[in-house]
Amino acid sequence: MPGENLTRDEARERAELLSVDGYEVVLDLRSAVDEAEPADGPRTFRSVTTIRFRAAAPGVSTFADLLAPSVNAVTLNGRELDPAAVFDGTRIALEGLESRNVLVVDANCAYSRTGEGMHRFVDPEDGEVYLYTQYEPADARRVYANFEQPDLKAPYRFTVTAPEGWQVWSNGAEESREGGVWRFAETAPISTYITCVVAGPYHYVTDTYTRGDLTIPLGAMCRKGLAKHFDADDVFLVTKQGFDFFHENFDFPYPFGKYDQAFVPEYNLGAMENPGMVTFREEYIFRGKVTRASYERRCNTILHEMAHMWFGDLVTMKWWDDLWLKESFADFMGSFSQVEATRFDQAWVTFANNRKAWAYRADQLPSTHPITADIRDLEDAKLNFDGITYAKGAAVLKQLVAYVGREAFLEGARRYFKANAYGNTTLDDLLSVLGEVSGRDMAEWSRAWLQTAGVNALTPEVAYDAAGRIAELAVVQEGEELRPHRIGVGLYRLETDGSLVRYARVEADVAGPRTVVAELAGSSRPDLVLVNDEDLTYCKIRFDEQSLATLRRHLGSVRDPLARALCWSALWNLTRDGLMPARDFLSLVLAFAGRESDVGVLQMLHAQALGAITHYAAPAWREQGGRELAAGALHELRLADPGSEHQLTWARFFAASASSEGDFQLLLGLLDGTARIDGLEVDQELRWDFLLPLAAHGAVDEAVLAAELARDDTASGKRHHVRCMAARPSAAVKDQAWAAVVESDALSNALVEATIAGMQQPSQRALLAPYAEPYFAVLERVWADRSIQIGMDVVRGLFPSLQDSEATLAAADAWLAERAGAAPALRRLVLESRDDLARALRAQSRDAAAATPA
């Protein structure tokens, strides 16, 4: 639609013309509970917005943003404008502005089922309706008229009329409620995309944080149906620990008054940092037994969003090019504060093994980009919430801390907040203050790390003297851009008890293609050389031949959890890069994963093993490898301590890898109680984990799945049921799933995601083959007709990656060649999926070669 995709140039021009004094937004949400669905369009609510703003000069023209089915009235400086003449469905034309202006827009805005704008959810358990807003990067315009760009900050006052029995929250504190009308205090100046409204019959718990003279009211909420599972005390514990950490280190009091945290249904993201009203996906409320890793992830997300109160909300990037100024810092601070302030003191292990894997993949795609990206428009911005902006940016900041020192880094942050509070910044604003406090050349560091793309590989080269001691140890750097790295190099040897233990370590600055680490000369011969020991920099680790041989025999004996995680990460990168056969990686998982103490690393290994057998194993060996994986998983499940989180993790992995009739019979027995594994409690969530592979292999029918839904008739149960139904091995089932996602927009975002996940079963390649050609035929129509979130889900989720052949690769190449004029964001998504497929084919070739005698 013309005007929906705001460009950077348009935003810059408008920012030069306007400054905004404030918004008054009045929403009437009573229509949310109307029983009848409208017959002639979407369900809507009334939105009346008053914007007070100034123009750089009298007579200039610009536009306001609004995505709405209809506009009732537009008034500019007391003049009534014809809505049909000034509103085109996405923008309101504003001509002949005065120095000071008042714009009033009375619109009918649509409730969303895609998680964008004002999302409306009906709980199947009790029929209650729940609302919340989600805007980033530019969906506030779906709820009220505004100037939708981050550098036109303003204070906001929200007034909301809600149905009887509801509660309402917004960014500001509640000032009054009377007759169903809720009024909220004016906010500090913030950007449109972090304003927020949450409304409905939510279960709400309160607490208070105090530090000296500072008092922050705390709140946490979820749907009533989840209240019995809601461990609000732990949420508040982490929240208070986070506030202690950030106040102690940032020297700038939390600036937004209260602090509510809402766990909401059908959420597209992990969470969103709306100041004073943070929203999270409700899957962070655990309905069954989960591992420590799940609590660690939730803790990290809570602290990530809290860090945004300073990095992103108090100080905001001018445009999405500098998205890293908030997301990279929040991602880094999530792990940094976890380690220093919470019970999750091994968070850097998770970061090294899990979070950085996301970055490595993104940074090797053809769409890779510098951390400071070139964001031309809002569609670019939407796609740049990626592994580079988050995880690579965070890893680079960890390198920066090693480069300038912890205290200099934090002092730079403190000065940055004080100098730019409630304002907008660019890269230069941050670099200048960091250079000032550290005395380092930040321009060169920025050029190398923030303004170039790609990941380096670091490999040790070791030469020994006649006595067997190190004569020279050098680090060889590969990559298009050779960067300066501050790294640790660790030497490990096998002890008499069988452990691999570090006996020497130095930190060194690595630059250029080859750097000699002179300090290690003369050291006794190591069994393992680990470059990037303690994970100070962002790179792919490689091994010398002896170190790799040691890991093949003794990987499970690496005593230090972080060092072990780094080794696993390196081996996975070797597999993805086609340098290690997939079957070799899988043999390492089967040999050593059972000795992995960190359950988060174990879960990542399971996910990687499934990815390897699905995409990287030679097709001729895939079935055999799958059987070996399932047998190994069952072996470890039976060995695991009864009732332990490792037992639960192996149970889930066994279900996901199950492939034989015996596997399915055991899963059925665990479901109906005729089989038992000592200590394994098969709760409702685990029941669905078992039912998915059973459905995919035809071991349970529609009646069994219907009975399970009746047992778990909840929103979560509905999503699981939809996934299992779409997983059944039937051509008719796949046709129904395809039609529900591609030909209809009736499903909500959560059910679109569940349908796609169920449809795409690795064991059903032949059944899915007929959809490869139609996929490419419908792409542009889907992108044009659906919201960008649903478009992304469909384009990524239905790409025929399971049709892993040169023919599919050629079809993708043909589409890209023939659709040069397609939307750049759509082309990027297809190009990324095409690259994943090409990588898979290379890895399969490498794995097949490993089976061929030399």
Characterise this structure:
Helix 15 runs parallel beside helix 17 (645-657). The chain has 854 residues and is of the alpha+beta class. The chain starts with 7 loop residues before the first helix and ends with a helix. Strands 1, 2, 4, 5, 7, 8, 9, 10, 11, 12, 13 and 14 form a 12-stranded mixed sheet that branches. The protein has a 5-stranded mixed sheet with strand order 15-16-17-19-18, with helices on one face.
Q: Estimate the mean pLDDT confidence.
A: 96
Please provide the count of β strands. 28
User: What portion of residues belong to β-strands?
Assistant: 15-25%
Cα distance, first to last residue?
59 Å
Reported for the largest beta sheet, the result is: 12 strands, mixed
- Based on secondary structure, the structural category is alpha+beta
Tally of individual helices: 28
Describe the global form. globular
Unreliable stretches: none
Rg calc: 28 Å
Helical content band: 40-55%
Short description:
With 854 residues, the protein is an alpha+beta fold.
Per-chain topology:
Layout: H1 8-17, E1 18-28, E2 44-55, E3 62-65, E4 70-76, E5 79-81, H2 83-86, E6 91-94, E7 100-112, E8 117-122, E9 129-134, E10 156-161, E11 167-170, E12 174-178, E13 181-184, E14 197-200, E15 203-211, E16 214-222, H3 232-250, E17 259-264, E18 271-272, E19 277-281, H4 292-308, E20 316-317, H5 324-341, H6 347-363, H7 378-383, H8 388-404, H9 406-420, E21 424-425, H10 427-438, H11 442-449, E22 457-464, E23 470-478, E24 485-494, E25 500-510, E26 514-516, E27 528-531, E28 540-541, H12 545-554, H13 561-576, H14 582-592, H15 599-616, H16 619-639, H17 645-657, H18 661-672, H19 684-696, H20 702-711, H21 715-727, H22 731-743, H23 749-759, H24 765-768, H25 772-785, H26 788-797, H27 806-818, H28 824-850
Parallel strand pairs: 1-10, 7-8, 16-17, 17-19, 20-21, 22-28
Antiparallel strand pairs: 1-2, 2-7, 3-6, 4-5, 4-7, 8-9, 9-14, 10-13, 11-14, 12-13, 15-16, 18-19, 22-23, 23-26, 24-25, 24-27
